[in-house]
């Protein structure tokens, strides 16, 4: 697929509508294309707003009103063969409204739960999109610093590339990666500033591909390392770095 074609996939990627091969190829492109990264963030935020606009909270007291109506509201009989007469029909008349209204109550409760869940997911997506956009703006600022420098290395165990860009004038650094090896469930990549023999945390990677502005100041660090840590990160590295890029 040509680069021009890849530029047209930002909306489909944000909507999770790409096939696996297309998604992986686009993510490789995304790691090196600030314009597409920005557009994906904007599409994601727009989709989140649309989802939030459609979510309707369950009205207060709905369950109480439906339960109170079980013995008073009659349900229209279904179309079809004429119902039986006599005692059987009377029993059906007594029990059918309860079953019908119970089903309506279950449907209302389910719909309300889905609406709340969709609203929560939309808020989370909006927060993620805002964070991505903010990071992109800061990384762009870092890349345009007069003294900006960078170093790259291939990622062991895969075909990806990791890059560190830094600026002493901005006192900041950023990390860009494509196709880092996937991790086992319950683990995450954690970045560190190397201050000689001491490592200080610089943030967690949400995915094996993407860009991250490292948290905390550069403060003369000699390098940036990446380790595999339990989900949520660690106070100190628990293993040897899988990557260590010099910052000079």
TrEMBL record:
Membrane topology: Single-pass membrane protein
Coiled coil regions, renumbered to chain: none
Alphabetical list of InterPro entries matching this protein: Anti-sigma-K/W_factor, Anti_sigma_zinc_sf, RskA_C, Znf_put
Keyword Cell membrane listed: yes
Domain of life: Bacteria
Domain Anti-sigma K factor RskA C-terminal: 101-240
Keywords: Cell membrane, Membrane, Transcription, Transcription regulation, Transmembrane, Transmembrane helix
Keyword Lipid biosynthesis among record annotations: no
Domain Putative zinc-finger: 9-36
Compartments in which it is found: Cell membrane; Membrane
A Pfam family it matches: zf-HC2
Name this polypeptide is given: Regulator of SigK
Organism in which the protein naturally occurs: Kitasatospora terrestris
Higher taxonomy: Bacteria, Bacillati, Actinomycetota, Actinomycetes, Kitasatosporales
């Amino acid at each position: 697929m040509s680069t021009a074609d890849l530029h047209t996939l930002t909306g489909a990627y944000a909507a999770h509508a790409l096939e696996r091969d297309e998604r992986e190829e686009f993510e490789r492109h995304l790691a090196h294309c600030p314009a597409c990264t920005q557009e994906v963030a904007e599409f994601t935020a727009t989709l989140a707003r649309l989802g939030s606009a459609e979510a309707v909270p369950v009205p207060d007291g709905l369950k109480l009103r439906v339960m109170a109506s079980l013995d008073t509201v009659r349900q229209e009989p279904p179309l079809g063969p004429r119902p039986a007469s006599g005692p059987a029909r009377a029993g059906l008349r007594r029990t059918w409204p309860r079953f019908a209204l119970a089903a309506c109550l279950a449907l209302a409760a389910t719909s309300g739960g889905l609406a709340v869940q969709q609203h929560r997911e939309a808020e989370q997506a909006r927060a993620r999109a805002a964070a991505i956009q903010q990071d992109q703006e800061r990384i762009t600022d870092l890349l345009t610093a007069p003294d900006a420098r960078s170093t790259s290395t291939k990622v062991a165990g895969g075909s990806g590339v990791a890059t560190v860009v830094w600026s002493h004038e901005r006192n900041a650094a950023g990390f860009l990666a494509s196709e880092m090896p996937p991790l086992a469930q319950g683990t995450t990549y954690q970045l560190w500033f190397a201050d000689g023999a001491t490592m200080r945390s610089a943030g967690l990677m949400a995915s094996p591909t993407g860009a991250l502005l490292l948290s905390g100041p550069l403060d003369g660090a000699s390098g940036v390392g990446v380790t595999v840590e339990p989900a949520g990160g660690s106070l100190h590295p628990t293993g040897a770095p899988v990557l260590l890029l010099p910052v000079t």
